[in-house]
Structures are given as C-alpha cells and as structure tokens.
Specification:
This protein has helices at 6-20, 27-41, 46-57, 69-73, 80-94, 102-105, 111-114, 122-140, 144-148, 156-165, 170-176, 180-189, 195-210, 219-233, 238-250, 260-263, 271-288, 294-301, 323-338, 349-361, 367-407. With 411 residues, it is an all-alpha fold. α17 (271-288) packs antiparallel against α18. The protein binds fe (ii) ion (FE2) (3 copies).
C-alpha cells in the first residue's frame, strides 16, 4: 500500500498553498476549475486537461518565496514577477511538470506581450492568466466586464469562451457556492502519478519550503539523509525505510506558513514569535492528517517532542514515541546543529555530538540512537554530505537563474 495516495499528493500540495495566506485560500483550485471549464468548452484533449489542472493548481507556488502576497494579487505590480519566476524555477527544476513550467513564468503577462515572447506554452499561460485575474476580481468583488475588456490584456478567444460559458453567471456561482469543488474532487480521483512522480512532487514541496530562507535550504535534505542512515543502522525493512523517508521529508512543511521574517530573525525569538514558530508542527499535522498513514504522520508531527515530556506541541513522553519518531527527532536536531541559522553559525560535528550526548544524558532524546550515530558518524556524514550537495547546487542554480530572469525583459 502506498504511504500517500496519488490524489492526496495533489491535495497536500493544494493545502500547503492554502496555509500561506488567507487571500490565497483555494485560489489555485479555483483557477484550475475555471481553466478546466474553458478547456472543456473548447474540446481540449483529456491528457491536456489533467496537465493544465496541475499547473493551474500550482501556478502560485513561487509565493513561498515572498512574504508579499499583496503584490501577487495586484494587477500592475512589478513585484508580481518574483513569485512567477520562483514558481517557474520550482516547477521546472523539481516537478514532473518541467516541460510546461514556463507557462507559470508568464502567468501575469498580458496576452499582447505574451505573443511576442518565446514562451513554449502560450496557450496555457494565457489561460491561467485570464482565470487567475477573474478569480482575484471575484474575490475582491470587482466587476468582470471592465476587467475582461482591457485592451490587449487577455486572449480574445478565451474571453469570448468565458463570457459564453458564464452567461447565467454559472461559473461564478459554482465558485461562490463551492460546487466547483465536487468537480475538482472528481478529477483528483482520476489522477495517476506513480512512485517517482509522487516522490518528486513531495520533494518539490519540502525543498521549495526550505528554499524560503537561506538558513533552511539544507534542513530537510540533511534531516532526511541522517534519518535514512540511522534507519539503515537499525536494519529497518524497505517499508519502514520508506515511511521514515516521507516522515523526515515532510516534517517541516508547516514552516511554509511561518513568516520569512521569523525564520530569518537575527537573535533570539521573543515569546510570541516562539509560539508562532512552534505552530509549524501543528500546521504540518493539519496538512498531512487524513492523507498519509498515521504512523508516518506521527513521526513527522513528533519531531520536537522529547522523551521527558519537555518537547512540543503535545508534550508526549518516552512510551508514546516510537523508534521512527525518535530517529526523526534526532536527525532534525543534528540537522539544525550542523547548519547555519540566523542566530548561530554551523556547529562542528564534534560540538554537535557533545550537545546530543548531553541531551541523551538528560533523558531528552534516545540514548541508544545517539550512541549509534556517534559510533558511525563519519560514514553517516560522508553520505549525508553527498546527498545535500545536489540540493545545494539546485539552490545556487535557482538563485542564479532568478537574477538572470528578473533582469531580463520579463517585466
Ligand atoms: Fe500569480
Ligand atoms: Fe494566482
Ligand atoms: Fe521543526
């Protein structure tokens, strides 16, 4: 049995975007719905249909990289390109949607300008552009007529199709009374991904959230790699290893909802900020609950629990924490110690070891796992460094391309 069902991968991705900002709740799904209705009306082939649904659902995924959601909702902001570029970079480098990802880069460009670009998916880009603006206008309560007829803004064929389809306001009504969700849920049931795609989407989710801050870029990959190496030392079978992998991969996705200013604050967080930061665990649980096997959810959501009950958010104790929970927790601590943070430099492996040994002695984390790590840390860290290198390169490459694209004629 799969740890996560195919349609649930899509639902997790969607829910994560919903956690980013209230104004973005269901935006991707509503845009996807409008795109699909228009495509259906224009007799698009079924495969194209599913493809566009995924792109439209994720078209604002680059918003993870910005705290400034205002600009992505506004029409005439130059800053709008920031999330469009990042969205394109995430999707083109990390998702199974690589081939068509450039439509996301151009999803805020007017039709008039778009036709002069080398975008390889102008049809999809202009479709998402129109549906995106319609959804924002509906949410903001502005009239559609003036929006739709701005000169050069939208593909006139799409505008005509929308007006014909929406004659009795049926599309808008479906959005307002949420009946569109039934159609979308029906569609999700038909999504088939396969193991590689499932993994690729979830890795994109985790890494794109880590990429929000330079201090967390390598956090998940390091946690995952350490957890897997520890799992090997305990001779876990392939099913258990797979569970450990996904738990470690998804443990911090709730950080997508934490303001970047908090992730990057220099110095200690005050009480209120600490509380907010700690909410990331509950958010991870909210997103995954019901969509992932319960033992995997437990491992992901218990990574800040301590054996003596001093952890958070549930203050669980030793008897409630499984081997997997304990491994993910220790891998998470090591990853944080070995990485640079806004409030501290990287610790050496020697210092990290002395800290976890002290924590184990205090009864906070599992003594046995710590000993296993200490005994094998050299070989473990060689493999961890090897795994993190790829993500480091990806991040550097993304930043380089971001600068290149933002300096180009995209705006
Ligand atoms: Fe956008
Ligand atoms: Fe959007
Ligand atoms: Fe965490």
């Amino acid at each position: 049995m799969n740890i996560i069902k195919d349609q649930d991968v899509i639902i997790i991705l969607k829910s994560m975007l919903n956690k980013l900002d209230d104004r973005l709740v269901d935006h991707g799904e509503r845009v996807a719905y409008l795109c699909l209705e228009l495509m259906h009306y224009m007799n698009a082939p079924y495969e194209e249909y599913l493809h566009v649904a995924k792109l439209a659902l994720l078209h604002d995924i680059g918003a993870y990289k910005t705290d400034d959601v205002d600009s992505l909702l506004s029409f005439e902001s130059e800053d709008v390109w920031e999330h469009a570029i990042y969205g394109y970079l995430f999707l083109s480098r990390m998702s199974p949607l690589k081939k068509n990802a450039d439509c996301v880069l151009y999803h805020h460009m007017s039709y008039e300008k778009l036709i002069g670009t080398d975008c390889s998916n102008k049809k999809i880009a202009s479709l998402i552009h129109l549906c995106d603006r319609i959804d924002v206008a509906i949410k903001q309560g502005t009239t559609l007529t003036s929006l739709l007829h701005q000169s050069g803004q939208f593909d006139p064929i799409l505008v005509k199709a929308f007006e014909t389809l929406n004659k009795n306001q049926c599309l808008i009504r479906a959005l307002e009374d949420k009946t569109y969700q039934d159609k979308m849920n029906e569609l999700y049931q038909t999504i088939y991904l396969g193991e590689d795609e499932r993994r690729e989407y979830l890795e994109m989710l985790a890494y794109s959230i880590d990429f929000r801050s330079e201090f967390t870029v390598l956090h998940t990959i390091t946690t995952t790699a350490i957890a897997i190496e520890l799992g090997k030392q305990y001779h876990l079978n392939s099913v258990e290893m797979n569970k450990l992998y996904y738990a470690a991969l998804l443990h911090d996705i709730g950080k997508g909802a934490i303001p970047i200013s908090i992730l990057e604050k220099q110095g200690k967080l005050d009480d209120k900020e600490t509380q907010l930061m700690q909410r990331h665990v509950t958010i991870t649980e909210e997103i995954l609950k019901g969509y992932i096997q319960t033992d995997v959810l437990h491992m992901a959501a218990c990574h800040h629990e301590k054996l003596d009950g001093s952890g958070y958010p549930k203050h669980l104790t030793k008897k409630e924490l499984t081997l997997g929970d304990r491994i993910v927790a220790i891998a998470d601590i090591l990853s944080a110690l070995l990485g640079k943070r806004s409030y501290k430099e990287k610790f050496s492996i020697t210092k990290a070891i002395s800290i976890i040994e002290e924590m184990a002695e205090e009864g906070k984390i599992d003594q046995d796992i710590v000993q296993v790590f200490v005994a094998h840390h050299e070989e473990i860290m060689v493999r961890v460094d090897h795994n993190t290198e790829k993500i480091k390169q990806l991040y550097v490459d993304m930043l380089e391309h971001y600068l290149k694209l933002s300096g180009q004629c995209v705006v």
